[in-house]
Design a protein that fits this description.
The protein folds into two domains: 149 residues, 3-Layer(aba) Sandwich (Rossmann fold), CATH 3.40.50; 116 residues, Rossmann fold. A six-stranded parallel sheet has the order 4-3-1-2-9-10, sandwiched between helices. It has 13 helices and ten strands. By secondary structure, the chain is of the alpha/beta class. The structure holds D-glutamic acid. The site of D-glutamic acid (DGL) has 17 residues, from α3.
Length: 278
């Protein structure tokens, strides 16, 4: 008998989560997947805790209504501001058998394996930085390996990516400025977390200003690896997921705009569907 359609849901405020989707797709191609970008309301980066929580919860409920049992919040801002509440307050009421996972904990666990001197830098949106989620999680999950963490908000980086200004002198100016700032906060950092799913698209520019010996952590491959491990450890969830290899993209903005811009993040052209969450 054909298993009921239950895709892995991947949610982001917009396009950035496509960097996570791409890696998950590559490492776990057998599963059905749906991607939802709340492009009509992004960026989330500077929005309040309450608003990010409300928007993210709406997206989660919407993806559940599409058959998802497992959702990845492929957005640091949503993971920082909404995940804990959704896991602790909402899921038990909605359906304790479903799961919502974020991108911060896998990144923090990976950092703990990599760092040699325990000095970590986090680059993220204003929302992610102000939430203090990374410093808190680094202390909690690094088993004492992280000694010091510093953060730098990079509010111009998402607009640079979304406007395809990645290789412009303006991009270089802001990237250099933020990288210099974070190394001023701690010149001995040995690991830098790209704590926003848009930032991997700026990696070539970022590398120009980061000393060679510093490890730059991109989340896509790590989240995909950790998801694989999660599914191995949780067969009760794995059996619920359907394996039709399909992908469906949804956006709260115009599907045409999404299809055009997604090209920046993905190698192949895609089709998207416009949806309304409420
Ligand atoms: N992709 C989001 C993140 O990882 C940032 C984009 C936004 O501000 O909405 O934080």
């Amino acid at each position: 008998m054909q298993k009921k359609y239950s895709p892995i849901g991947i949610f982001d405020s917009g396009y950035g989560g496509l960097t996570i989707f791409k890696e998950i797709r590559e490492k776990l191609p057998e599963y059905d997947m749906v991607y939802l970008g709340d492009n009509a309301r992004n960026p989330y980066g500077a929005r309040s805790f309450e608003v990010v929580y409300d928007y993210t919860l709406e997206a989660v409920k919407f993806l559940f209504s599409k058959g998802c049992h497992l959702i990845i919040l492929a957005c640091n801002t949503a993971s920082a501001k909404a995940l804990r509440n959704i896991q602790q307050l909402d899921l038990p009421k909605i359906d304790p058998g479903r799961r919502v996972l974020g991108v911060i904990r896998p990144s923090v666990e990976k950092v703990s394996e990599i760092t040699k001197n325990g000095r970590i830098g986090v680059l993220g949106t204003v929302g992610t930085v102000n939430s203090e989620s990374y410093p808190v999680e680094l202390l909690k999950w690094s088993e004492g390996k992280v000694k010091n963490s510093v953060q730098e908000a990079c509010p111009m980086w998402v607009p640079i990516v979304e406007n395809n200004e990645i290789n412009s002198p303006g991009a270089e100016y802001f990237i250099q400025k933020n990288i210099e700032n974070i190394f001023r906060k701690d010149p001995l950092l040995d690991t830098l977390i790209l704590g926003c799913t848009h930032y991997p698209l700026l990696i070539d520019q970022i590398r120009k200003f980061v000393p060679d010996q510093v490890y730059i952590l991109e989340q896509g491959p790590i989240v995909a690896d950790k998801l694989k491990v999660y599914l191995n450890r949780h067969p009760e969830m794995e059996v619920k997921l359907s394996k039709g290899r399909s992908v469906h993209f949804m956006t709260t903005e115009s599907s045409k705009i999404f299809e055009e811009k997604a090209g920046l993040f993905l190698d192949n052209p895609i089709k998207a569907e416009h949806v309304q969450l409420l």
